[in-house]
From TrEMBL:
It comes from the Bacteria. This is YdcF family protein. One of its GO terms (cellular component) is plasma membrane. The keyword Signal applies. Residues 1-36 form the signal peptide. CDD domains: YdcF-like (cd06259).
Length: 200
């Protein structure tokens, strides 16, 4: 095993652990305390049934998932463990060799044991704008309380804006480092604050 491959695997594990910790924090913030009076969610956000939206990433010419897309799916799966009532929406078209981004994400989720009835496939979008335009109505149709976006740090700012413009109720963001350190650090701060901060 090469050193770079080992580093990549360690970074991926750190990302997933971070996603699990964020998901647990979100779940704890959303869960009522036994015997306590109902309270208004922090910043007016309702995490009772979020849709977890995993944004696609270009497949190889042969139709295989690239490492970035694998990491997005694993991160979304980690978040979904904290919300057993929530669906995962996989979004992305751009077919290669007869396979779509969303279709391959669904296949990976199913291989990892995620229930088919909790997966919503949106396989027509060819851009982040279309990811948002096509996924927001699906989240609303599924009677979810809002959206938790899952993507990469260099993509998160654009994705947040596009989903807000499409009328999505963004509850939180979860991203993993994929760019320069300054981008990664600023996005990590945004991710951590997103459950308690309104999006603009």
């Amino acid at each position: 095993m090469s050193q770079s491959f080992g580093d990549e695997q360690r970074n991926r594990c750190k990302t997933i652990v971070g996603a699990v910790l964020l998901a647990c924090a979100l779940a704890c913030a959303a869960a009522p305390v036994a015997g306590a009076q109902p309270t208004v969610p922090v910043a007016g956000k309702d995490f009772s049934k979020p849709a977890i939206v995993i944004l696609g990433y270009g497949l190889t010419p042969q139709g295989w998932m690239r490492p970035i897309l694998y990491t997005r799916v694993l991160t979304g799966l980690a978040v979904a463990q904290a919300f057993p009532q929530s669906p995962i929406i996989v979004t992305g078209g751009n077919p290669r060799n007869g396979k779509s981004e969303a279709g391959e994400m669904r296949n990976l989720l199913r291989t990892l044991g995620f229930p088919a009835n909790r997966i919503i496939v949106e396989d027509k979008a060819n851009s982040t704008v279309q990811n948002a335009q096509f996924s927001v109505p699906l989240a609303k149709k599924a009677n979810t309380s809002g959206i938790i976006l899952v993507t990469s740090s260099t993509h998160q700012g654009r994705a947040d804006r596009n989903f807000a413009d499409a009328g999505g109720n963004i509850l939180a963001t979860v991203s993993f480092p994929d760019g320069n350190p300054a981008t990664n650090i600023s996005q990590l701060v945004r991710d951590v604050l997103s459950p308690v901060t309104p999006f603009r």
